[in-house]
Amino acid sequence: MLNLDKSLFQPFSLGDVKEVRSTPDNKAPSFEDTIEGRYANVLFTTASQANALFTVYEDMMYLSDLYTHSEVFRDFTQNSGVGVKEITLLNKALSETAQFHDITHHFLTVLAENKRLIFIKDIAGKYQKLYQQFNKEEKITIISAEELTSTQKAQVLQALQQNPQNSGKAFTIEYQIDKYILGGLQMYTESEFMDMSVASRMSRINEEVAKLTL
Asked: Is the pTM for the entire model greater than 0.85?
């Protein structure tokens, strides 16, 4: 029997994510022709048809987090011998520790039957991206040398919202600390990286000084 540590299923915050239950045509906002992309699209459509987009979004983020922190769960997903009996036990273990939508349980069964359970974390990431695209939501990672105060975090959000290119967007912001950037900020989005750190400015200055000494 699969034993899952129940402490891994403690509630966690998804941030300020707008709840959307379905799309008008039940279609995903984009399509990626990969294994992970195709499964994420099917899951998105199925969840939308059941008015469960957000509920399944919560489930997939939960499973992604479980995959990251549980070696037992990772090993389970990578076991090619997993069949109906084993996935039934997994769904039972999940049901005993948290509320998962029936669509999520069925989706895990389909993945196991098709020997695709190993892709669960990547599929969860693709589903998250589809949900964010429809919701005009963008995930941003802000890195600072020290923990930002609530006032500074509010200023970061305000600066993002005031950018004309971000009109209509919502943001999920993750804050990280890296003392080696010395000061300033670094910002990652899904498509770009902005380095406004003291370390990068010092590096550029050193490069210019080096040119002068050649």
From this structure: no
Chain position carrying tokens 């919202």: 161
- Rounded Cα gap, residues 104 and 108, in angstroms: 6
Do 31 and 62 meet the contact criterion of CB atoms below 8 Å apart? no
Concatenating the DSSP letter of every residue in 69-138 gives H-HHHHHHHT-TT--HHHHHHHHHHHHHHS---HHHHHHHHHHHHTT-GGGHHHHHHHHHHHHHHHTTEE
CB 183 within 8 A of CB 143: no
Triad 80, 96, 101: Cα angle to 5°: 75
pLDDT in tens, the chain (214 residues): 455 454 444 444 445 567 888 988 999 988 899 999 999 999 999 999 999 999 999 999 999 999 998 898 999 999 888 888 888 888 888 888 778 999 999 999 999 999 999 999 999 999 988 988 777 666 788 889 889 888 888 888 888 778 776 665 667 788 898 888 888 888 877 667 777 787 777 777 677 666 766 5
- Other Cβ atoms less than 10 A from the Cβ of 82: the count is 20
* CA–CA distance, 183 with 34 (Å, rounded to integer): 40
> What's the rounded Cα separation, in Å, for the pair 70 and 135?
30
Q: How many whole angstroms separate alpha carbon 170 and alpha carbon 102? A: 29
Cα distances (angstroms) measured from residue 93 to each of 10, 82, 99, 115: 14, 15, 11, 20
Using DSSP's 3-state secondary structure scheme, residue 175 falls into strand
